[in-house]
Specification:
Blueprint (H helix, E strand, L loop, with lengths): L15 H5 L15 E7 L5 E7 L1 H5 L3 E5 L11 H4 L6 E2 L9 E2 L5 E7 L2 H8 L3 E6 L6 H4 L7 E2 L2 E2 L2 E4 L2 H7 L2 E9 L11 E6 L5 E5 L4 H12 L6 E4 L16 H12 L3 E4 L2 H4 L8 E9 L5 E13 L2 E2 L8 H4 L5 E10 L12 H19 L3 H7 L4 E2 L4 E2 L5 H12 L11 E3 L2 E13 L5 E8 L4 E4 L9 H13 L6 E4 L16 H26 L13 E4 L2 E4 L6 E3 H7 L4 E8 L10 E13 L5 E11 L6 H20 L5 E2 L4 E2 L17 E6 L23 H13 L10 H5 L2
Parallel strand pairs: 1-15, 13-14, 17-19, 25-26, 32-35
Antiparallel strand pairs: 1-6, 2-5, 2-7, 3-6, 4-18, 8-9, 10-19, 11-16, 12-13, 12-15, 16-17, 20-21, 22-23, 23-31, 24-25, 24-30, 27-28, 28-29, 31-32, 33-34
Helix pairs in contact: 7-8, 11-18, 14-15, 15-16, 17-18
Bound molecules: dioxothiomolybdenum(VI) ion (MOS).
The site of dioxothiomolybdenum(VI) ion has 11 residues, from loops.
Length: about 750
């Protein structure tokens, strides 16, 4: 693709007006006649059985339509396979209202449905549950020694070994051994989880659900309720944030559908903020690192052992440990991870899952090694820079990480750093500068899209994927406008609807590479047909032209080398008696690639710390990102800004505490669960280091959803060390940890 009328241009979100004026509707905002309201009753214990559930008082409340429990519900599927969604880990997925077993605190045990939300909420408080308690295990730290390696769908736990790491460590001139901890975190998107299940009659259901994957949810509902897929439609045209919490179907969805089918009327189920802490979360982690280096800083040995947590019924985990082998050249390495099973709900993906946790520990350990070796932390990264993925044993399709380091350091002023901890000040405050590397796998999934061009010059682009906020609508519109040569305003985008062409969940930073490639293919097919029509015109200036010889711009098909050879799209369609060209196409990743595909970043952070009180402010962050071709620098910058704020939260604020007496997350509201607010967020500079990557996919894009959070917490933690000389190795770095003797 050579024309660049729309790609690479800073472009505002096409749905911005709808969002700021409130016309963009979210899952709980679809009103239909006769809508009933469901409120969930949550388990008060972490493990055991329901001995008795008394719903008489709730049923007696005027306006209550029914109370559903495991004893009173329509039939549900009985095999694990039917509950497995497209991103389910191995194991036996949780089934809401299925039987009397309690698997985690806060598990839904009843759904009260009433004419009004307030009536349902009141009646829900009258449901009496008697439990048979069993001892629960929720203390991750205490269970650490019981961690075991697991297999995810037959794929062993991330692990890797090469060379002789133990011996090399013994002989290394400089050694660092340290253990890093991260707590459980919850995503807390603004929009509550909600499903409005619209009863269409004749066992047909349309659901507006808060989800990152409408087709994933459609298939789940069809499987769980034994319904044909074409009788279920799931829509999520707008999603008020996800961060991974909406990848798997959450229990509001099956509960709303269950009630709607039983009552044969439309039902909405909205979860409370407290109940959103009973969904998935980022697993706590303990990571042990042992790094050995020669006196010149060359890594001699890299060992990384991570422990994560999961539920008793599913093995959820992501890769925490393999990243160092993608970043740093080292002949001797041993990487492994294990899982502790707890009586909690299953963790799930949370922005940068695996990479964000792994990079925190790896990049703090590299900082410790730099100090031990008396080498500048950035210099240490460059000494050990790897052009090879040492696990897959292949080079990268593109890797401009060196350029990220260079431009980031220059913008930040890194060369003015005094390496001595506690040596820099700004008035009463200690000043600290830290840096870290970020990395994420640039994935692509199979996806389909449709492109429709009409003779009046309007274009429609459609694919089932969701837009949870990163700007997918705009990306899709830009591609349609660019490839079919029409103004951006002429492009309509349809997404977030299971009835549209097949697409995966929106996640993993793979939407632009996957859906974008499908749009590219669909638009190419439209172009082919247009060119064929143009060639057929009597005396066509494009006779004999091939698709690669022309561009589509301003409603014209033009010779690439000779702009005077042009045919208007309208003329071509008129002559061919065609008033509409519609093409659907799919794109798949190139499985035979000889290259590894990653995005990279260099993050530089400045902190100012009140010496007496230990209050930390992150006054500056520079994040230089290399993620292939950037289709829209404006929304990509926003994506990185938001992720850096997430990184500040990870470093300094976020933590879900558990009360082990009850086996329950006790941080379950936005007063106690701290996130960065405006006063915590200062200057953030985003540098986009463009990469030309002709191998990865036809658009040359990698995706930027996750990369901005990866490395950010480590850069801040390293800056805190540089400011204070104190190494806090368990996040979040709160002032009590900094002041502790
Ligand atoms: Mo992302 S954590 O794959 O939504």
């Amino acid at each position: 693709m050579t024309a660049t009328s729309y790609l690479g241009k800073p472009t505002s979100r096409i749905e911005a007006r709808a969002k700021v004026t409130g016309t963009a509707k979210y899952a709980a905002e679809y009103n239909v006649p006769g809508l009933a309201h469901g409120v969930v009753v949550s388990s008060a214990i972490a493990k055991g059985r329901i001995k008795r559930i008394d719903v008489a008082d709730a049923l007696a409340v005027a306006g209550v339509l029914d109370v559903f429990t495991h004893e009173h519900r329509p039939e549900l599927a009985s095999s694990d396979e039917d509950y497995k969604d497209e991103v389910a880990p191995s194991g036996s997925p949780f089934r809401p209202l299925y039987d009397d077993r309690i698997l985690f605190s806060g598990q839904p045990v009843a759904l009260v449905v009433a004419e009004e939300f307030e009536i349902a909420r009141f009646a829900a408080a009258l449901v009496r549950v008697e439990y048979e308690r069993q001892p629960h295990v929720t203390d991750f730290e205490a269970q650490r020694e019981r961690a075991t390696a697991s297999k995810q769908d037959g794929i062993p736990t991330p692990s890797h070994a090469r060379g002789h790491p133990a011996k090399a460590f013994e002989q290394a001139a400089v050694r660092v051994e340290a253990e890093y901890r991260m707590p459980v975190e919850h995503h807390n998107p603004m929009e509550p989880f909600a499903a409005t299940a619209v009863w269409e009659g004749d066992d047909r259901i349309t659901v507006f659900d808060k989800t990152q994957g409408p087709q994933n949810c459609r298939n789940y509902v069809a499987n769980v309720f034994g319904m044909p897929r074409d009788q279920v439609r799931v829509l999520s045209p707008y999603v008020g944030g996800g961060f991974g919490s909406g990848l798997r179907p959450q229990y509001e969805l099956p509960l709303a559908v269950l009630a709607a089918r039983a009552l044969e009327r439309s039902v909405r189920v909205t979860l409370t903020r407290q109940q959103m802490f009973t969904l998935g979360y980022r697993s706590a982690t303990i990571q042990e690192l042992a790094l050995g280096a020669d006196s010149d800083g060359s890594l001699a040995s890299f060992r990384h052992d991570a422990v994560g947590m999961t539920s008793q019924f599913e093995d959820f985990q992501r890769d925490f440990v393999n990243w160092s082998s993608l970043l740093y050249r080292c002949a001797n390495s041993e990487l492994g991870q294990r899982l502790v099973k707890l009586d909690q709900n299953t963790p799930c993906d949370m922005r940068g899952p695996g990479g964000a946790e792994g990079a925190y520990a790896i990049e703090c350990a590299m900082d410790e090694l730099a100090h031990a070796a008396k080498i500048d932390p950035l210099e240490l990264r460059l000494i050990n820079y790897s052009d090879q993925d040492q696990i897959a044993d292949r080079p990268y399709s593109s890797k401009q990480l060196r350029e990220c380091y260079r431009r980031g350091a220059e913008k930040f002023g890194w060369s003015n750093r005094n390496p001595q901890p506690r040596s820099m000040r700004d008035g009463d405050e200690l000043l600290g500068w830290g840096m870290a590397t970020g990395i994420w796998e640039a994935m692509q999934m199979k996806a389909s899209a449709k492109a429709v061009l009409t003779a009046n010059g309007s274009v429609e682009i459609a694919s089932a994927t969701a837009d949870m906020g990163p700007g997918t609508y705009t990306m899709m519109a830009q591609l349609g406008a660019e490839m079919l040569g029409v103004p951006l305003d002429n492009v309509t985008v349809k997404l977030g609807d299971s009835a549209l062409p097949d697409a995966p969940v929106e996640g993993g930073s793979f939407t632009t590479s996957s859906v974008g490639s499908a749009i590219h293919a669909a638009c190419r097919a439209v172009q082919e047909e247009l060119l064929a029509l143009a060639r057929k015109l009597a005396g066509s200036p494009l006779a004999g032209a091939k698709l690669d010889d022309v561009v589509f711009a301003e409603g014209k098909i033009r010779g690439k080398d000779d702009a005077r050879r042009e045919v208007s799209v309208a003329d071509a369609m008129r002559a061919g008696k065609v008033d509409r060209i519609e093409k659907e196409a799919s794109a798949e990743p190139n499985e035979d690639s000889k290259y590894s595909h990653c995005t990279h970043s260099a993050v530089f952070a400045e902190v100012k710390i009140d010496e007496q009180l230990g209050v930390i402010r992150v006054t500056r962050v520079v994040n230089a990102v290399a993620a292939g071709r950037i289709l829209n620098p404006k929304i990509v910058r926003s994506q990185i800004l938001g992720a850096v704020v997430g990184g500040i939260g990870m470093a300094l604020h976020e933590e879900t505490a558990t009360d082990h007496r009850f086996g329950r997350f006790m941080t379950h509201n936005l007063a106690d669960y701290h996130v960065p607010v405006n006063a915590d967020v200062h200057a953030i500079d985003v540098i986009l280091v463009e990469e030309e990557d002709h191998e990865i996919n036809p658009l040359g894009v990698k995706g930027v959803g996750e990369i901005g959070i990866v490395g950010t917490a480590a850069a801040i933690a390293n800056a805190v060390y540089h400011a204070t000389g104190r190494r806090v190795r368990d996040l979040p770095i709160t002032l009590d940890k900094l002041m502790r003797d």
